[in-house]
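Following the same procedure, sequence and fold were stored together, as reproduced here.

>
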Amino acid sequence: MIIGIGSDLCDIRRIERVLQRHGPRFEARVFTARERQAADRRSGQARLGTYAKRWAAKEACAKALGTGFARGVYHGDLGVENLPGGQPVMVLSGGARLRLHEIVPSGYRPRIMVTMTDEYPYAFAQVTIVADEAPPA
């Protein structure tokens, strides 16, 4: 069953301006260490696109959780990592993880699907949270 859906469109130029103005302070406050490593392996527009897509994914996930960035859900609690084949996955911690477990019914386990793309000057992400029946113990 679908628990929540969120999407977000981000202007890459906005992320560029914030990075120019606040640099490492902004990066450390908003992005996980793994996200920063992924972005730092790229340069120029590819680096900006990496950050912008992850920003959009965080916004989309917060919407799918039904809270936005409130009730203990922070940007740093939402991370995007990539599986070995490149598929993006959301990794939740802190208040975001607690909220996820609040909204998933007993006897079900959460699954988060995320898709991201960028085409300068925009980045887009969509997150769908579903609850799958947990196998009997």
Q: What stands out?
A: The mean pLDDT is 95. The chain is about 40% helix and 30% strand. The longest helix spans residues 44-64. The longest strand covers residues 108-119.
